[in-house]
Design goal:
Radius of gyration: 39 Å
Strand order of the largest sheet: 3-4-5-7-6
Shape: elongated
Structural class: alpha+beta
Number of strands: 7
Oligomer: single chain
Helix content: 55-70%
Number of helices: 12
Largest sheet: 5 strands, mixed
């Protein structure tokens, strides 16, 4: 097992020495590519040099991972279509900055590590293969072992054996650790830092959350449609039949009439409760009129005049739309009941991947969330989407509540 590790380490380090020399060539190539952008040639050539560097670094990355038994994922080494897209890739891709960082580290560590391996192998080869042929060297250029000239068999044995022992000891104890150290250095240069990994993970979670929101919104719409078109329609039909049956019975039908009456009333109550469930789950008005129309309907039914203004919101996931609708409805309800305002405003806008909701009023202000003013419920709805709520409500007013809901899709 140890001999296998030693063999892999020697092979890894000896290959690393000429590869470090070859990597050094990328420094003038990159410099020339960058300087030639002024005459137009580098605009085309530099991205291809960078992708060549990516392939070269990726080969070393796989070698390093194989040596230390690390699991790595393949990196993209393909240029985009179009010169502008390629330069945007050069400027935005963090992997390119890691490749440039790897050049410096590989040159700085590959040369000395490879020279140490070459020295150890040279010592062993000199002791085992060259020393027995000491007699073949000219007298004035005698073979030298451990800085001493070899002119007899006794000198060849006395000097060759300690040199071989030193080479074996260095190889046995130093080279495997040196190779692993170089491999980990290579992986550290080409792998994302903990901060970059965290940012990448946050991006992945944001993307997966967008997919979950889309699926959740689609499921809400499906359930709402099934309840509205299926269950509710059946309840309506049952209520109508029960109503007709009540009309057809005589007043002296006794218990049967009473049971039909109770069944009819219970069915109507069930329909009322079902409509309430549908409205709280996914308001039908959102499916019919969209977020803008739904918010306008809420404003129209408020107890105070409400001015609504909306920008182009683009595509908003259904779950975020529902949350925005309920946030506006709850805020307007709070304004009507508690603020003493004579007018209110609602503004919906979008800043990149964030839906911005601003609700203001000219009421008395002084919102105290510890008294259960309804803001806590708004914060919970926003927190479910990793959103933020800001409340500005000085005593005497006015009050402004700003809600930010991420809506990347």
């Amino acid at each position: 097992m140890r001999l296998r590790l030693l063999w892999h380490a020697i092979r890894y380090l000896l290959v690393g020495l000429p590869s470090a020399m070859a990597t050094l060539l990328f420094v003038p190539l990159l410099a020339l590519g960058l300087l030639s952008t002024g005459v137009g040639l580098g605009v085309v050539v530099l991205p291809r040099i960078v992708m060549g560097l990516r392939l070269w670094a990726e080969w070393h990355r796989r070698r390093a991972a194989a040596l230390v038994n690390a699991t790595i994922s393949a990196r993209q080494a393909r240029l985009r279509q179009g010169i502008r897209a390629q330069w945007r890739q050069l400027l935005d891709d963090p992997e390119i900055r890691r490749d440039l960082r790897w050049i410096v580290r590989h040159i700085a560590t590959g040369f000395p590590a490879g020279l140490v391996a070459l020295m150890v192998v040279g010592m062993a080869v000199s002791s085992v293969i060259v020393a027995p042929f000491w007699w073949a060297f000219p007298v004035d250029e005698a073979l030298t072992i451990l800085a001493f000239p070899v002119t007899t068999w006794w000198q060849a044995i006395a000097l060759g054996v300690p040199q071989l022992a030193a080479a074996l000891a260095l190889g046995w104890w130093v080279l495997p650790g040196l190779a692993r150290l170089h491999a980990r250095s290579c992986l550290a240069a080409l792998e994302p830092s903990p901060v970059e990994q965290l940012a990448q993970r946050v991006g992945e979670l944001t993307e997966s959350r967008a997919g979950v929101l889309d699926a959740h919104g689609a499921e809400l719409r499906r359930i709402e449609r099934d309840l509205h078109d299926g269950t509710q329609a059946k309840l309506v039909a049952i209520a109508m039949r029960l109503g007709v049956a009540r009309e057809m019975l005589n007043e002296d039908a006794g218990p049967l009439a009473r049971l039909l009456s109770e069944a009819h009333e219970s069915t109507e109550e069930a329909m009322t409760e079902l409509r309430q469930v549908i409205r709280t789950m996914y308001p039908p008005i959102l499916a019919d009129r969209g977020l803008k129309g739904a918010v306008s309907a809420v404003a129209a039914g408020a107890g105070v005049p409400v001015e609504v203004s909306t920008d182009d919101l683009g595509r908003v996931p259904a779950a975020v739309e529902a949350a925005a609708y309920f946030i506006v409805a709850e805020t307007i309800t709070n304004v009507t009941r508690h603020s003493g305002a004579t007018r209110a405003t609602v503004r919906l806008s979008r800043r990149r991947d964030v839906l911005l909701i601003e609700v203001g009023d000219d009421g008395r202000g002084g919102i105290d969330e510890s008294r259960g003013t309804g803001v806590a419920g708004i914060r919970k709805r926003a927190a479910a989407f990793d959103g933020r709520v800001q409340v500005h409500s000085p005593a005497g007013g006015p009050t402004t509540i700003t809600v930010e809901l991420p809506c990347a899709s």
